[in-house]
Design brief:
Blueprint lengths: L1 H43 L17 E3 L5 E8 L4 E2 L12 H16 L1 H15 L12 H4 L27 H7 L3 E2 L9 E2 L8 H7 L6 H9 L11 H4 L14 E2 L4 E10 L2 E10 L10 E7 L4
Parallel strand pairs: 3-4, 5-6
Antiparallel strand pairs: 1-2, 2-7, 7-8, 8-9
Helix pairs in contact: 2-3, 2-6, 6-7
Amino acid sequence: MLSITTTVTTGVRRGANERLRTEMLWQAQAAERLALSIVERAASGGALKTASSEGGLFKQQIALPVERGAASLRFADASRCFNVNSIIDGDGKIVADEKTRFGLLLGAIGLGENKGAAIADAVADFIDRDSSQESQGAEDNFYTGLTTPFRTAGAPIASVSELRAIDGVTKEIYARIAPFLCAREVNKRVEINANALTPDFAPLIYAATDGTWPLEEIRAQISKTPPGGWSPDISAFWQPFGNPQGVNLAGLAGTEPTFIEARVLLEAEQRFVEETLIIKVPAGAAGGEPKVFSRVLGGGV
């Protein structure tokens, strides 16, 4: 009888837990639809043009109505980053200019020119499809010789956290560079939202413009961002620099986010579900509806 009672009790608890989990997942999906609706309304109404890193849409946490629990939704700009996947093209081949910019970014963050170039080579080798090794990179013959062997991805990364598997990316280096990086579409640069930049993110502009202007000048210009943002276009942001080297500035930076992160946190009966969405925002009010680019249960980017 004791054995039967224990078995039945355990089964009931498992059933209740599974029902609660399923219910919370459905609530997360409902929150996802709400997040898309909020972003679409903000984009069509022009609110994203004045959304700084801590203002406008990104200013507050939104409470969501749910039964038997609590839920919240918070947005953040997700377009002030370097897309690691931009260093390979659709055929899995390395895009040399983008790999060079990646190295410039890592160097400007504080790794130094040589270390930045070495990690850029290692990342390129890890995600490209061929077995040709960059000068400071590493291919399968290196990783399969480790104590715990594995192979290179040979494909774009889905999360920046995958960089921890790459040669030379220590825990300390990863913590330093991760805030500047993201994983987006192959062979496409993320248009940086200049209105959401802070001086700490000056290395993104430095790398995007091939190191044309000194970091300190870029930081100074970012600190001059008007209260309403750079409007109506980005030309006022570039104006003080000039362009003696003829860098193509088209598509490097804009005045509103091209990607937005939405974090949903659900709590019910001392259980939690966290979902992180990356929402792709079409350019301009007539550019189409925002779409979910990626979703992760349990947090992460």
